[in-house]
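Hey,

The postdoc asked me to send both predictions to you directly instead of through the lab channel. I've kept everything plain text so nothing gets mangled by the mail client. Protein one:
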Amino acid sequence: MRVDEFDFELPAELIAQKPLEARDASRLLVVHREDGRREDRHFSDIVEYLEPGDVLVVNDSRVLPARLWGRNKQRSGPVEILLLRPYGEGLWEVLVRPGKKAKPGAEIEFSPRLSCRVMETTASGGRLVRFEFEGDFDAILTELGETPLPPYIHEKLDDPERYQTVYAKHSGSVAAPTAGLHFTPELLAAIRSRGVAVAPLTLHVGLGTFRPVQAENVEDHVMHEEFFELSPESADLINTRRAAGGRVVAVGTTSVRVLETAAGDNGTVQPGSGWTSIFIYPGYQFKAVDALVTNFHLPKSSLLMLVSAFAGRETIMRAYEHAIAERYRFFSFGDSMLLL
């Protein structure tokens, strides 16, 4: 299967640069997989499509203030670092700009309390660095760091919390699980009052989520790894609801990746944690997901391939054509889809 089959033309003005004032005021394109039927709704209407006994699975990962600005102690000029992945004991994989100022052995200072030494260059062109700090690393990062926004967003965000879900809890992502940005506490309360359970899990979103697939053939793509955790309580809730006939409604492709990683052939999910590099594209047989809430994704991305696997490539590409014609807003701060 060729990657070009997942390409589409998107007018630049449809790439949302800022969130709407009200999270749940975004539009919702409801797509019925069985017959391809579409409905144009608003996100707050999602309650109407959820049934008592369903379980809504959300990713409670919180975006790190992962962008740091420092200076190379040996060379002048600013250095930008983006945290990607922790390895323990102060070690992190990072991206550095400009890379020429971050050769192995270089020392980068961010403040009198925080600095790092470049240990080595990684296979992907990043750097492995060891941080040295005084006090609590997370607190220092919160003080000095900046929440990174996707490269297609060119406007500064007035309120960084708008790039966090209202249920964000566990820090570790470098990008938000954006399908969840539409939920408000009031909407979640209405969903629960309808008899729908809400089960959290965690997947820390990596930078690879923004990268288009570079291979010519889908099957040749090597998927990036992301850390996940599914608690025994959430696993039990998901399994109990599904066994009783309820649907598992995944919020976002990140929740799908955890559920399908944790699921056995019979659809039962097992609690646990670790790294997943699951790559879901058309032909994949889903085991644990019955419905999906998702934003509109980048052309040629692994995320577009995942939703195409779930609803069918032709159904998704026609839905995208409809969304463009109807002037839906795309990507992180854009509108949403509900695939039933």
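Protein two:
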Amino acid sequence: MLPKNRPPTHPGEMMLKEFLEPLRITQTELARHLGWPYARLNEIINGRRGITAASALALGEALGTGPEFWLNLQRDWDLWQGLRKHQPVRPLRRVAAHPATN
């Protein structure tokens, strides 16, 4: 569920505040452990880059969370950002039946 009065936590902020800082691991150390360029991890942490499926798999394994944790954070972030620009679309009155294909 998306928060109403604030943006959801970006995955990078969660990674920094809930994992790196408590574990006293630097961004450089985690990037090296993951085999990533430092810039990739730093951009995620600073909210300039999102979590991909590949990133979620690697982070889930390294941090013991599972990939869904990271993808759910990214989904919530993306939806909240999208809602800020979204123009509502009226519902269709009737959906045309599709002819059967043989």
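Summary for protein two, as requested: The domain at 11-83 is CATH 1.10.260.40 (434 Repressor (Amino-terminal Domain)).

Thanks,
C.
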